[in-house]
Amino acid sequence: MVFTVLWLQSGGCGGCSMSLLCAQTPDLVAQLRGAGVEFLWHPSLSEQSGAEVRALLADILAGRVRMDALCLEGAVLRGPEGTGRYHVMGGTDLPMMEWVRNLAGLARYVVAVGSCSAYGGMAAASPNILDACGLQYEGVHPGGALGAGFRSGSGLPVVNIAGCPTHPGWVMETLALLAQDGLAAEDMDSVGRPRLYADQLVHQGCSRNEYYEYKASARQPAQLGCMMEYMGCVGTQAHADCNNRLWNGEGSCTRGGYACINCTAPEFEEPGHPFAQTPRIAGIPVGLPTDMPKAWFVALSALARAATPERVARNAVSDHLVVPPTCPRRDV
Amino acid sequence: MVEQAKTRLVAGPFNRVEGDLEVRLDVVDGHVGRAWVNAPLFRGIERVLEGRTPMDALVIAPRICGICSVSQSHAAALALGGVMGMAPTHNGQVATNLIVATENLADHLTHFHLFFMPDFARPDYEGRRWYAQAHERFAALRGSAVRGILQTRALALHVMGILAGHWPHTLAIQPGGLSRGVEKQDCVRLSGILGGVRAALEETLFGARLEEVAALSGVEDLQRWAEGRRGSDFSLFLRIAQDLALQSSGRSYDRFLSFGAYPGFGSDPGQRHWRSGIFETGAVRTLNMDDVSEDHTFSHMADMGRPLPPFEGATEPHMRANTAYSWSKAPRMAGLACETGALARQLMAGQPLVRALVARDGGNVLSRVVARLVEVARLVPMMEQWVRALRPGEAWCHSHTGDIPDGRAIGMTEAARGALGHWLCVEKGLIARYQIVAPTTWNFSPRDAAGVEGPLEYALKGARVHEGEQTPLSVQHIVRSFDPCMACTVH
C-alpha cells in the first residue's frame, strides 16, 4: 500500500521543495517510488490545479481519500489579528491556517518541512508583522498553530525536518521511515527533529577542522581558516550532518566559505548579532561548543594557538593554499 | 446553446507557479473578458530587513525565494556594493555569473519539463496527434522526461556545490566577490559537470548541438529545424504550439523590460553580456531607473496617495477588502506596465529568432517558451567560457573592514523570470529602507490607479474557455508561460 502525502505551502520561499528536487542516487521520483510514497498533491509537481485540488481537499476532509502524512512547507501565518488572512489559499477564500488545522487532525503523521513550518523561521523574524509561527512551536516555545499537546493519528507530535533549506536526504529518509512506521518518538530530538540528521554537529566533518584545532582563523570572506572566531560560524553547536552528507554533490556552507548560521535551530533567524560576525566578550568568542567547559576551551585555544604550524597560520588568512604540507621523506 | 452569458470563475489554488495564485475571470461568450490576478499570500521580508545591519541582507534576501535564491543574493550584493563603493574581483564576478547562470538554467529546465509541459499531457487533449507522445514524456511525476530532467538539473546544481556551498540559499556571493576560491582541479570538475549537462540537453531536449539552437534566426528557420528534429522535446513543443496556435495566445502589452544580465562583458565590469533596457515596437530604449514606481491602489497596502519610487516606498500591509484584491504591488515604468523574463532578455540581447517571433506575433505563449529554451542553448556555452575565465591563485574577494557607509544604491540583476531590483538605503549604519521589485511583481501586478491591468491580466483577455471548464486550460498555459514566482511577487 502506498503512503500518501499531501504537501501544502504557506509562509515561506518554497526552497525546501526546490531542494528536494535535487535528490540524487537515485533521483526524487525513483526514491519516492522505492519508498512507496505517493503525493496526493504537491504544489510544484502535481498535475491537478484549481478546481481539481479543491475537490481533492474535500475528499480528504470527507474521509474519501486517505492522507497518511500532511507536509507543510512555510510558516503558518496567523495575522492580521488572528484571522490568518495574510494567506488565503487560492480559490478557497479560507485562510491556510484553517486548512492546516482542519487537515492536521486527519493525518497519521504531520511533518514540518523546513524551519519556517517547524518553528516560524525566517518568516517569523522580527518584527514578525505576519504573526508567523511553526506548526507546533513558536520559536523555542512549544505551542504554535496546532498547540503543544497536538498528536497526529500515529500518536507522534509534529515531525520537524528543520533547516533553511532542508537537505533532500533529510526529507526523503524521514518520509521513507514514516511510510514504514519506522520513526518513533525516541527517534526525534528535544525540538522534534529526526535524529537521523540532527544527532550530528555541522562541525563534524568540517573541512576546516585543522584550522579549528589551532585557532587559525579566517578574518575575511574566501580565506581558508576557521570561521568560528570572527566570521560568525556556529557549526560547533549546530545540529545537522551537512559536512558529512554534503549538498549538491560536494558542498556545505563552510565548504562554500561562509558561516554555518545554525539554520536547523529554532530562532536561528535572530542570532542577536550580525550573522557573519562572531560576537566577542573580552576577546573570547561568545557561543563556544555547548558541551565543553569554557575554561578548558580558553586554555586549549591558547596552547593550540602557540603551537600553530606556520603552514596552517598562513593558509588560514589566504584565499588559496599557499603553503602545502611538507613530505617527511624529503625532509630527512 | 445560450451564448453571451457572463460567468465568473475563480481559478485556484494554482500550482506549478512557485507559491500560491488565484485568478478571477469574467467569462463572456466562451472567452475571458476580464481577469483579476491575486497573489493571496503576503511575506513581508522587506520589513524584516529594515533596521538590521546591512550585511545581514546577504542572509535574509535569498530567503525571499527558493527558486530565485541566488538572484536575490546577487541583487543584495550589488546593492551593498553600490553603497560601499565596492565591485567584485574578476574571479568573484565570473564565478557569480556562473552561479546566477546555473540557477537560471536549472529554473528554465524545471519550468519547461515540470511546470509547463505537464498541462499538454492532460486527458483534455486526448485525440490530438501529439497527445500520446506528450503524455508519455510529460505526464506529471510519471512521464519519461521527468526523471531525466531531475537528474540533469541535479547535476547542473553541482556547480553550486563547488562554488556556492549549496543551493538554494547561499551566502557565497559577497559585494567584493565570492567567499569560495577554487583551484584548477575544481575548474576541471566544473567543466565536467557542464559537459554532462550539455550532453543531456543535446540528446533529449534539443536533439541537436546547443550552438545550432542558439543560432536559429527566423520563424521559417525554426519550422524547418523542428521538422528535422522530431524526436526532441523542443520539437514536440513546437508541434503542439502549432496545433494549438499558441502564438495567438497570451499576448500582452509587448513592452519588455530587462535590467541586463551577467556583468563583465568585454572585461568591462559595468557592461552586461545581455544588455538592459526596454524593448518596444522593434526598438530598444535605455532604462531610466528614476521612472520606476509602485502603485498600491489595488494592493492590500497602505495607500500612499500616489505611486512612489522604491527609494520612497514602504510595505505597510493593510487589508482593504472593498478595493484591493492582491498582496502584489503594481510596479510601473514611467507609468506603464511592462513584461519581463527570458523573452525580454533575449530581445534586448538581439537574438534573431526571438526578435522575429515577436515581430510577427508579439509576446505570447509560444515566444515566451521559445525564448527560454533558446536562452538555455546560449547559456551553457557562455558558462563553459566562464569556467575557463576563472583564474585560480588570484584574488576571489576584496577585503572589507569597518562599517558600511550611509548611502543608497540599486542592485539590479536578472532572475530566470526577469528583472529583479533591490533598492537599499543605509542610514546610521543600518538598513533604513529596503524595497524589492521582483520579476513576477511586474508580470502579475494588479491594476493601477489609472485602471491599467497588469501584464498577465491583459494577456488573459480573450483566452478561450470551453464549456464546463472550471480552471480553463488556455488560462493555465498563459499563466505558466510567464514562469511566475509568486513567492518573490509578495516578498
Features:
heterodimer, A: alpha/beta, Rossmann fold, Cytochrome-c3 Hydrogenase, Chain A, domain 2, 2 domains, 12 helices, elongated, B: alpha+beta, Cytochrome-c3 Hydrogenase, chain B, 4-stranded mixed beta sheet, 3-stranded antiparallel beta sheet, 18 helices, 40% helix
Report how far the terminal alpha carbons of chain B are from each other: 45 Å
CATH top-level class of the largest domain in chain A: Alpha Beta
Q: Going by CATH, what is the homologous superfamily of chain B?
A: Cytochrome-c3 Hydrogenase, chain B
**What structural class results from the helix and strand content of chain B?**
alpha+beta
CATH level-1 class of chain B: Mainly Alpha
Q: Biggest sheet of chain B, in brief? A: 4 strands, mixed
**H/E order of the elements of chain A?**
EHHEHEEHEHEEEEHHHHEEHHH
Q: How many distinct domains of chain B?
A: 1
Note down, in words, how this protein is organized.
The complex is a heterodimer of chains A (332) and B (491). Chain A is elongated, with a radius of gyration of 22 Å. Chain A folds into 2 domains: 3-197, NADH:ubiquinone oxidoreductase-like, 20kDa subunit (Rossmann fold, 3-Layer(aba) Sandwich), CATH 3.40.50.700; 200-318, Irregular (Cytochrome-c3 Hydrogenase, Chain A, domain 2), CATH 4.10.480.10. Chain A has 12 helices and 11 strands. Helix content of chain A is 27%, strand content 11%. Chain A has helices at residues 15-20, 28-35, 51-61, 96-104, 115-119, 168-179, 195-198, 209-213, 242-245, 294-306, 310-316, 328-331; strands spanning 3-9, 37-41, 69-73, 76-77, 109-113, 132-133, 137-138, 141-142, 159-161, 280-281, 284-285. Chain B is an alpha+beta fold. Chain B has one domain (6-489): Cytochrome-c3 Hydrogenase, chain B, CATH 1.10.645.10. Chain B contains 18 helices and 16 strands. Chain B has a 4-stranded mixed β-sheet with strand order 10-9-6-13. In chain B, α4 (90-116) packs antiparallel against α14 and α13 packs antiparallel against α14. Chain B is globular. The chains are: A alpha/beta (332), B alpha+beta (491). Chains A and B meet through α1, α2 and α3 of A and α1, α2, α4, α6 and α7 of B.
